[in-house]
Design a protein that fits this description.
By secondary structure, the chain is mainly alpha-helical. It has one domain: Ferritin, CATH 1.20.1260.10. The protein is 75% helix and 0% strand. The protein is built from 5 helices and no strands. It is elongated.
């Protein structure tokens, strides 16, 4: 059976992953409202990946004979003004998620739970990739500002993103 402290922090992380999905869905709706279907696609796929991340944690807890304790998911902040501001919010959020994952890693070390420490490495690598992807979009948005034709091309680029089911593999 999994250590209670680890069980609690993993349950908290499940909640954070599902909150992330809500946040990305709110952003997707915003982008749909302003006619940026590619941006909407990107954030909607991101929401699906966050659900995958939560479910991987969910399944891991069950596999370790732990108890899943689903909590209330807060409503996301829906104050969105323009694509750059939204992606800056995304980046800030992903940095918060990274800090949370690193806290899980730290707890696994202090509690000598090597199985979970090994498991959480997948999330650490995933966060590095997610932050880099978001920063790439932010750099493009900053470089070209509100130039409508460039925004249109970025929208087309983001529309090409395809969902790939995330799962944990050893």
């Amino acid at each position: 059976m999994i250590n209670k402290k680890i069980e609690e922090i993993l349950n908290a992380q499940i909640n954070k992953e599902f909150y992330s999905a809500y946040l990305y869905l709110a952003m997707s709706a915003y982008f749909d409202e302003i006619g940026l279907k590619g941006f909407s696609n990107w954030t909607k796929i991101q929401a699906r990946e966050e659900v995958d991340h939560g479910m991987i944690l969910f399944d891991y807890l069950i596999a370790r004979n732990g108890n899943v304790d689903l909590k209330h998911i807060e409503a996301p902040d829906c104050d969105m003004q323009n694509p750059l501001q939204v992606f800056e919010k995304i980046y800030a959020h992903e940095k918060t998620v990274t800090e949370s994952i690193e806290s899980v890693a730290g707890m696994t070390e202090s509690e000598c739970d090597l199985a979970t420490r090994n498991f959480i490495d997948w999330y650490i690598a995933e966060q590095v990739e997610e932050e880099a992807n978001v920063l790439d979009i932010i750099k493009k948005l900053k470089m070209f500002g509100e130039e409508k034709s460039i925004l249109y091309h970025i929208d087309i680029e983001l529309a090409k993103r395809e969902y790939k089911h995330h799962n944990y593999s050893c």
